[in-house]
Amino acid sequence: MSENQLAVEVVRGEMQPWSDYSGQRRAVGGLVLRTLLTDVLLDARTLVLGPHGADLIEAVLAKSGPTTLLVRSVSDAGELSDKFGDRLQVVAGGLDGLVAAGATPYDVVVAADGLDRVLGYDSDDLNWQQRLDALAAVMSPRGVLVLGLENEFSLTNLFDRRPADQRHADDEWRPLHDDPSRPVSVAQLAESLERIGLGTDVAAYAAFSVEETPSALIAADVAAAARPGQLPARIAVEALEASATVVPLLAPVAEGAEAAARAGLLASTAGGWIAVAGAAPKHAVYAQTPGQEALLTADPVSDGWSVSVTGGGAEVAGVVFDASAVPATVPGGVTVETQLIRLAAAEDVPRFRELAARLGDWARSQADSRVLLRWDDVVVDGDSFGFGISAWTTAATETDKDRLAAAWSRFHDRLIGGHRRHPWPPWMVGDDLVAAWVAMSGVDPVRQTPAAGPDSPSASVEYVARGKELAGALAAAVGIPADASQTPDVRTALAQAERSAHAVYELKGQIFGLERTLGFRDKALKTRETRIRELRVQIQSVHAEHIRLRKSRAYAAVKVVRRVAQIRNPRKFAGKIKRRLKSKLGPA
């Protein structure tokens, strides 16, 4: 055992052997939460309560004064003490043990992991409210608190197809998801903080996380006011779609998020909440760009959102992340994709064509041809449009056809892959439908010349194929499939199974028809073969008779008679015979 491990302070409630940094539930961390802590922490005596990631601990040490970390695992405490050395005082034990030890109140308490994993098997059996009282006992009355709370009503939890015993492991030791005193909404969380004297100035954020890493923190009031297609809803849906790639779901989570946003309940369906008491965060939205270690912050302004993106810059799958491509102000309207989906569902083809034509004119008017067009990020701004928060660009300059084809190809995957209603025939999918949409955007369709022939591919295949490549590169860089059928949810799998069963039924009918036709043809071939054999036997017998006839004397006589019958001038013929006999016999 090292000197640092021997120096770890132990209070009541320690657990060993145990680890909160492995298993099903990991320690909380991430760029978004680090940035929020950097904005609200003070240079004062700080307590980090519960398991937190090393990156979060580093952020606290860089901003705060003397820092203490309380974890219930002795082995975790020893490893953290070895890692951070004298910069961090590590205590192993439970929260009630720290209270019983008479710890001096801290000016800042960071409990972003929540109060679930702060007690051991020797601790008192405290419910959530009693744990909050214990936290208040080790905190200064006017201190700063950053408290996390898991939401049992989150979409990812409701749509998780795993049973409860697999979703909730034994990391909590005493499960709080069945605790009736635990807050289950932002209002109840604020009431609980007000009860301990911290509810007068609380900023609550809806946390949309991938596993234990928050990828988006949106102010609760901003999330509640967001509607489908608006910036906060887009960020939340994108974060939820990223979580769908690692959590087995029953249904597409994006559909539920849009329904919640339409009802004003987006903040109520987040994976959890982060409450900040005693300090004012700087921004209304903190988000991490999918596929990049880039931070996005946004604040509402009169005509939209003031946006800032920092970090990133890498090239992934043939596309480049360029933070300078994001405008400083993003319109506050809905996305083009939202309107297109609504028009397609209403089967309003004329307005769909009109919107597609306007999009084509706007895209050709943009000076920078390297920005990847994606209708799920282009925002309606009055009679025009504006770029959203996507910072992905192409590695080289692309033509207008290629960029429009990429946008429509991505929209095709999201519309058709999401099994949404649309006015086009079910057999008109893929390149044909994308080419039709590109033509609606003002790109003249390439017609085949008569010399090309009906089987020659159209020249439009070239830019449609390039657009599909760009859309696929964007999906690979973001890490979120554009096609909803690629996400592991049961509803989509059942829909695909039903579609496959229908296809199998149709193929069975075709196979039955072919088998019946083949049966008829087989019978015809057998009849024909029998007739051929019969004719062959007849021909053989006739041939034998013919040979026998040719060898007979009668045939020889008939042959002589036939030749004699061919003589036209008997006297002349008799003269020729007489002369030939004389030449053979000689003179008399």
Fold topology:
Blueprint: H1 3-6, E1 9-10, H2 31-40, E2 46-49, H3 54-63, E3 67-71, H4 74-84, E4 88-92, H5 95-100, E5 106-111, H6 128-137, E6 139-150, H7 155-158, H8 164-167, H9 186-195, E7 202-210, E8 213-219, H10 220-225, H11 231-243, H12 253-262, E9 272-277, E10 285-288, E11 294-301, E12 304-311, E13 315-316, E14 319-321, E15 329-331, H13 336-345, H14 349-365, E16 379-381, E17 384-386, E18 392-394, H15 400-416, H16 431-440, H17 460-478, H18 490-550, H19 553-565, H20 570-585
Parallel strand pairs: 1-4, 2-3, 2-5, 3-4, 5-6
Antiparallel strand pairs: 6-9, 7-8, 7-9, 8-10, 10-11, 11-12, 12-15, 13-14, 14-18, 16-17
Helix pairs in contact: 2-3, 11-12, 15-16, 15-17
Shape: elongated
Mean pLDDT over all positions: 86
Oligomeric assembly: single chain
User: In which range does the helix fraction lie?
Assistant: 40-55%
- What's the gyration radius in Å? 41 Å
Distance between the termini: 151 Å
Walk across the major sheet and give the strand order.
1-4-3-2-5-6-9-7-8-10-11-12-15
Structural class: alpha/beta
Runs in which pLDDT lies below 50 for 5 or more consecutive residues are: 1-5, 449-454
- Secondary structure: number of strands: 18
Structure description:
The chain is of the alpha/beta class. Among the domains are: about 1-150, 3-Layer(aba) Sandwich (Rossmann fold), CATH 3.40.50.150; about 335-485, no CATH class; about 500-570. The chain has helices at about 5, 30-40, 55-65, 75-85, 95-100, 130-135, 155-160, 165, 185-195, 220-225, 230-245, 255-260, 335-345, 350-365, 400-415, 430-440, 460-480, 490-550, 555-565, 570-585, and strands spanning about 10, 45-50, 65-70, 90, 105-110, 140-150, 200-210, 215-220, 270-275, 285-290, 295-300, 305-310, 315, 320, 330, 380, 385, 390-395. The strands form 3 sheets. Strands 1-4-3-2-5-6-9-7-8-10-11-12-15 form a 13-stranded mixed beta sheet, sandwiched between helices. The chain has a 3-stranded antiparallel beta sheet with strand order 13-14-18, covered by helices on one side. The protein has a two-stranded antiparallel ribbon with strand order 16-17. β2 (about 45-50), α3 (about 55-65) and β3 (about 65-70) form a beta-alpha-beta unit. The chain is elongated. It comes from Kribbella turkmenica. This is Class I SAM-dependent methyltransferase.
